[in-house]
């Protein structure tokens, strides 16, 4: 289906789906947000009323001119019916963007349905569209093309290992082959995964824990990645953090008469910067991060989907499907090796004391101005 004009879209689900609702409002020049498909909960009804859109409880209720569905319902691999819903919408001739993670067999099934009905299927992933991660990916590509990667130091939480794999697949020269050598489970709260990614040795420290009553919280961090190359290391400090390059320290060897005062300042290797900040992360609240970064990132992901729909570029769509299925296979292999997450107790301890201490230290070492 070639999409040319402004299209009508719906959102399925209203937990994380509310982020998609907000993202669609940012794309009002291209998309008319017309409804929410849900189980009919009070929250979903309130959400639909808030956006002034229709509330649907069945695919059969959808109008024939709806061309895009954002499925923000847990997929089968997480115990939800998101994949069945996505496939049914594809069979209706509706383009679908389904929130990650999705098992590779489910992805293949949805891709087949998309091709059969001449529409497109995409696994939604806001993270690679965050400004700092776009910087990290671009920097990694540029640096790895001139400085060979030799080691990867990776951290993450089990709930967001799919986007971690997607970031790595975009940043590294190759993800193939992906091999897990060993999994160590004695470094609580992290499991240590020794792996080889595209021929590069990697250590992945994954927090494989979940609070059953609140599975989207209590992660120590979402992602951090360090790519060590022959000339230095590129660091993504955090999913919402900065991007830094650290050059390798090199102390030149001179003859016995050389002194640091006399010659080191003019030595080329000694005049290189010790580190270079490529992306500066602001001190935002979590609300500001969600509003100013996550929602625009989702909107950009949807825009990429629309671009493919408008161009009907089969080669580009085929390339996307190939990468998507392989990423899903790597994710499935990683999560299978990690096994079921350890169940932990949800804790709502206030962090005010920690924040106050950190602010006092910041004032001491950086100054009153911040």
From TrEMBL:
Protein name as catalogued: Thiazolinyl imide reductase
Gene3D superfamilies: Dihydrodipicolinate Reductase, domain 2 (3.30.360.10), NAD(P)-binding Rossmann-like Domain (3.40.50.720)
Database matches in PANTHER family: BILIVERDIN REDUCTASE A
InterPro entries: Gfo/Idh/MocA-like_OxRdtase_N, Gfo/Idh/MocA_Oxidoreductases, Irp3-like_C, NAD(P)-bd_dom_sf, Thiazolinyl_imide_reductase
SUPFAM superfamilies to which the protein is assigned, alphabetical: NAD(P)-binding Rossmann-fold domains
Domain called Gfo/Idh/MocA-like oxidoreductase N-terminal: residue spans: 8-123
Gene Ontology MF annotations: nucleotide binding
Organism: Butyrivibrio hungatei
Domain (Thiazolinyl imine reductase-like C-terminal) ranges: 148-245
């Amino acid at each position: 289906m070639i999409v040319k004009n402004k299209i009508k879209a719906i959102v399925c689900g209203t937990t994380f789906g509310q982020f998609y609702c907000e993202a669609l409002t940012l794309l009002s020049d291209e998309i008319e947000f017309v409804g929410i498909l849900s189980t009919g909960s009070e929250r979903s009804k309130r959400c639909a009323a808030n956006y002034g859109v229709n509330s649907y409880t069945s695919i059969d209720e959808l109008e024939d001119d709806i061309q895009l569905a954002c499925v923000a319902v847990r997929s089968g691999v997480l115990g939800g019916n998101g994949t069945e819903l996505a496939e049914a919408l594809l069979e209706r001739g509706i383009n679908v963007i389904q929130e990650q993670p999705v098992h590779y067999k489910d992805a293949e099934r949805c891709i087949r349905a998309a091709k059969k009905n001449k529409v497109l299927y995409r696994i939604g992933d806001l993270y690679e569209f965050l400004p700092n991660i776009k910087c990290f990916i671009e920097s990694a590509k540029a640096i790895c093309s001139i400085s060979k990667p030799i080691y990867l130091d990776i951290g993450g939480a089990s709930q967001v290992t799919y986007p971690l794999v997607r970031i790595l697949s975009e940043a590294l020269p190759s993800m193939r082959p992906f091999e897990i050598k060993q999994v160590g489970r004695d470094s609580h709260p992290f499991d240590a995964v020794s792996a080889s990614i595209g021929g590069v040795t990697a250590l992945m420290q994954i927090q494989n824990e979940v609070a059953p009553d609140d599975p989207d919280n209590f992660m120590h961090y979402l992602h951090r990645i360090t790519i060590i190359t022959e000339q230095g290391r590129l660091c993504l400090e955090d999913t919402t953090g900065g991007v830094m390059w650290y050059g390798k320290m090199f102390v030149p060897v001179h003859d016995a008469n050389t002194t640091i005062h006399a010659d080191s300042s003019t030595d080329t290797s000694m005049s290189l910067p010790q580190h270079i900040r490529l992306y500066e992360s602001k001190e935002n609240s979590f609300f500001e991060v969600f509003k100013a970064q996550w929602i625009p990132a989702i909107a950009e992901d949807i825009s990429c989907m629309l671009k493919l729909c408008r161009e009907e570029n089969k080669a580009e769509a085929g390339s996307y499907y190939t990468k998507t299925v392989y990423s899903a296979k790597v994710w499935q292999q990683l999560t299978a090796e990690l096994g079921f997450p350890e169940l932990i107790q949800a804790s709502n301890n206030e962090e005010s004391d920690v924040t106050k201490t950190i602010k006092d230290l910041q004032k001491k070492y950086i100054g009153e101005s911040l």
